[in-house]
Amino acid sequence: MTDPALPQAAQPDDSIAASTGVGRLTLAVVALVFSGASQVFASAPYSWYAAHLLSFVPALYVLDRLHGRRALLAGWLVGISANFSIFYWVVQTVETFSNLPIVLAYGCLLLFSLAFGFYFAVFGWGFAPIKRMAGPWWPVAIAAWFAAVEYLNPQLFPYFQGVSFYQEPRVFLVASLTGVPGLSFFVLLVNCIVLDLVLRRRDGVAAMLAPSSLRNMAVAGAFLLLSVAWSSHRLQLIEAAEAEAETVRVALVQTNRNVHQVRAMNAKSRFAKVNDFVDLSLEALAADPEIDVFVWPEGALSGGPGARRNRRARQFVAETGVELWTGGSSSRRDDEGRRRSYNSAFRVHGEGTIEPRYNKNILLPFGEFMPFEELLPILKKIQGVGNFEAGSQLTLFESDLGDFVFLICYEAIRHRYVRGGVNQGADLLVNITYDAWFGDTGCPHQHLMLSAIQGALYGLPLIRAATTGISAVVDARGMLVETTGVFDRTVLVRDVKRLQVPSVYAQWGDWFAWLCVLSTLVLLARGWLLQAPAGRRGWVAWVAVCLWVLAVPAMWGANPYQPVMDWICWSSWLAVVLGVPALVFWRLRGRAVDLGEKS
Question: Is the N or C terminus of the chain more exposed, i.e. has fewer CB atoms within 10 Å?
Answer without folding.
Answer: C
